């Protein structure tokens, strides 16, 4: 077929159609058109135009055939509408958290007018708010499974992997174009994140940017390591790692950044991309060592965090130009990272013991300050503080299932009741 010959990207889809529809040569013209032309064309890039030439139509003796051909050619005009519907539905279906209409339009680079017009046709399956700053949602969560199922959905089928790839690329581009040093315009390096109004943070970091910062790695991860080589992530992080961490700091989501870096490290083996793997490992140490500074005073990323980073650190070498000129006396720092990954701060008294949970994901510590604290072993985030003890807690342990904590007090050496976490 000339269409497959002239548009190589269609060959696979046309070939699949002939295998799925045995004896398609004997089907009606309309069915052949939909299976061999319309559906394959829906897979093409929406930004490209294709010219279909129908030759010798006037030489056709059967007027019914001429009428049918003209009718099915008219259907080609609906390709743009169907493709746009698939793009919007696919984007909404694979979102990990709802986005406002205006944010979705920016992410998929479609005009607000086109998005609004398309959403009007989809109100039977979407909750479309009148306010474009409100979030879009599917009426029924099960519809997501339907449109991601090729066998059930037909021409509205959404290729989940392809949809996530496109969105991940859009998120990286959006962050690259938006994130910058001091994005919230706070100026003093000691500006406390807790003192900044949430409304101001939302104004500086729009919903689509916050979503991108939180979920871009998860979308890449869901694509699968075989289809993702990490080059996009590498370019972004080597240019904007500090900007991204700063944004997460203002958002109060530093721990999500740690999890994202760990996810990239796990999905990119060092033997496949050694340079990126080395960079990610160094970035992990940088974030863990400076977690508290990022959480409390995000702009310290460009000051104390870089100043006290080891001299041979890749992060220090790449981003050293961000260190302010007014820092003249730079302390002599060690050349390499030490064995300590991070410091867990929170107790006001002497820590008497620490214990890891059976699965290694949590740490519990007890102290003479009469509290017991539960920590996330990976991110260092304090998960819970247990108070109410009348004296120092000298020992604590996890139950075998990791859900209960028996305590041993100093006075009387009595064990308190089990407390469920």
From TrEMBL:
InterPro entries per record: NPHP3-like_N, WD40/YVTN_repeat-like_dom_sf, WD40_repeat_dom_sf, WD40_rpt
Domain Nephrocystin 3-like N-terminal: 3-88
Pfam family name, one: WD40
Keyword line: Repeat, WD repeat
WD repeats: 344-385
PANTHER family per UniProt: F-BOX AND WD REPEAT DOMAIN CONTAINING 7, WD40 REPEAT PROTEIN
Protein's name according to its UniProt entry: Nephrocystin 3-like N-terminal domain-containing protein
Organism: Amylocarpus encephaloides
């Amino acid at each position: 077929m000339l269409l497959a010959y002239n548009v190589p990207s269609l060959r696979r889809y046309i070939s699949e159609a002939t295998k799925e529809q045995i004896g398609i040569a004997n089907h009606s013209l309309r069915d052949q058109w939909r299976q061999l032309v319309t559906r394959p064309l829906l897979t093409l890039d929406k930004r490209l135009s294709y010219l279909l030439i129908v030759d010798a139509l006037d030489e056709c003796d059967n007027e019914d055939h001429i009428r049918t051909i003209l009718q099915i050619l008219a259907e080609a005009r609906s390709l743009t509408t169907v493709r746009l519907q698939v793009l919007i539905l696919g984007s909404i279906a694979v979102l990990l958290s709802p986005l406002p209409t205006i944010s979705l339009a920016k992410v998929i680079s479609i005009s607000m007018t086109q998005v609004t017009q398309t959403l009007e046709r989809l109100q039977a399956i979407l909750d479309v708010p009148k306010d474009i700053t409100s979030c879009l949602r599917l009426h029924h969560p099960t519809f997501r499974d339907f449109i991601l199922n090729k066998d059930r959905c037909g021409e509205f089928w959404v290729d989940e992997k392809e949809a996530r790839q496109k969105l991940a690329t859009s998120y990286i581009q959006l962050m690259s174009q938006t994130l910058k040093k001091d994005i919230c315009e706070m100026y003093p390096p000691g500006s406390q994140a807790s003192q900044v109004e949430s409304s101001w943070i939302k104004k500086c970091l729009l919903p689509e940017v916050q979503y991108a910062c939180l979920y871009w790695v998860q979308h890449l991860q869901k694509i699968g390591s075989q289809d993702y080589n990490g080059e996009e992530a590498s370019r972004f992080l080597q240019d904007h790692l500090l900007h991204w961490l700063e944004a997460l700091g203002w958002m109060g989501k530093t721990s999500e950044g740690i999890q994202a870096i760990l996810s990239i490290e796990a999905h990119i083996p060092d033997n496949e991309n050694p340079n990126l793997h080395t960079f990610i490992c160094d970035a992990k140490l940088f974030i863990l060592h400076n977690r508290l500074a990022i959480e409390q005073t995000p702009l310290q990323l460009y000051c104390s965090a870089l100043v006290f980073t080891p001299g041979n650190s890749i992060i220090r070498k790449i981003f050293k130009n961000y260190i302010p000129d007014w820092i003249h006396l730079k302390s002599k720092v060690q050349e390499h990272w030490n064995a300590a990954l991070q410091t867990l701060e929170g107790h006001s008294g002497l820590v008497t013991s620490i214990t890891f949970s059976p699965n290694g994901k949590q740490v519990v510590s007890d102290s003479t300050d009469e509290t017991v604290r539960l920590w996330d072993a990976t991110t260092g985030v304090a998960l819970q503080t247990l108070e109410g003890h009348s004296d120092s807690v000298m020992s604590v342990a996890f139950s075998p299932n990791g859900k209960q904590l028996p305590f041993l007090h100093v006075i009387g050496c009595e064990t308190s009741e089990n407390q469920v976490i």
